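Why do we bother with holo predictions? Because pocket geometry can differ from the apo form. Keep that in mind while you read this record for zinc ion.
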Amino acid sequence: MYCDCLIKDCSVLTANYEVHNDYGIVISGKKIIDIGRSAELQEKYSAGETYIAQGKLAMPGFIDGHTHTSQQLLRGVISDEYPIIYRRFNMPYEASLTPDEVRLCTELSCLEMIKSGITAFADAGGTFMVPMIESISKAGLRATVTKATSDISEGLPQGMSESTAECIKNNEELFLQYNNHSDGRIKIWFQIRSVASCTGELIETLAQMARQHNTGLHMHMSEYSESVLLTLNKFNMREVEYLDSLNALGPNLLAAHCILLNDRDIRLLQENDVKVVHCPRSNLGKGVTKTPQMIEMGISVGLGTDGTAHSGLSMFKEITAFKHSQIVTWGVPYADNAVMPAKTLLRMATYGGAKALGQEKEIGTIEIGKKADLIFIDIDQPHLQPTHNLINSLMEAGESADVKAMMVDGNWLMKDRCVLTLDEERLLFEGKNSINVINKRMMG
Ligand SMILES: [Zn+2]
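The structure, written out:
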């Protein structure tokens, strides 16, 4: 039988998070059509391309459930700064970006994602959407993107808020024009930046419209105490209760961060099947999430980077920071150090992300019929081998540089760490020039 691509002689991480050696994957078009022992697959198929992946682990690509591609040229600014950084740094920076800078940011961000093994991501809001969408399309990644949406101008720089009617119109027009762009790889979601910057009317309307259009809604939730205190002071409800009163909680809601939650908040997220995404290294400047409780209650949890401005786009680093912060908080005080096991972490960074993007039937695991969104990790290295348990070692000691190759929708985006869809040298050169311009502008 003919297939487009036969990947063979590698280890494969299967859907139950087990590693099988001497395995292979068969791809036709965008999809995985077979998985099994290399020798058997080789007998069965004649391939357009054969990729010998000896010494590598084939696994589903990481899914970054919450990032800001537009903040790629803010790298290095916010470390060691006092809160609340998004008001003092991120928002003024975003408000000043030109369409060309957004294009450059998005391409640089996609470049870093490809080299970090991230095959799909959810962008939490951009200003100039056309250059952003065109850049993601060129890079070849999978994404759900949103337009930054706020209708309360107080505390925001000029240009970062619009009238309620304009916000609604812009979200819907973007959806109608660009949803399923790039052969379905790019989805348009609706956005509420946060309860601090959106009116109840806007939140209620966008949540309702997202349901009507069968798309998702992305927001920052319970990240800072100011948002919890704000709804308590204004409406005598905690933030999650307030969102529930507006009918905004539902299975299509991607709630980023979810740090400052009480038991009732968590119960509401569970009852409404809200998809939680933590951004560990960003979150740890604000608090420690109650993730073991959420997982125990069956809440879907994914991981995100929160963009390069915070700490770069390494999912491996998010995983290790998350694991150790969870152990020290929920493990050590109760003699329960197995509170965040390696398989749970790996599942969060892949399948958890797929659920957050509403695409768990298509991506997030290596299974027949799913999209061929794969990464190939060089496991024959002294920091990973020899090992008694490859998944444990990968979650503790894996690095972005270990990701040697990537494909999305069955198309190669990187081989031997050479990105095939973007010009790395040119982007780094342009990025360095641009960051000087931005620095001068920010410093006034
Ligand atoms: Zn964010």
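The chain has 16 helices and 18 strands.
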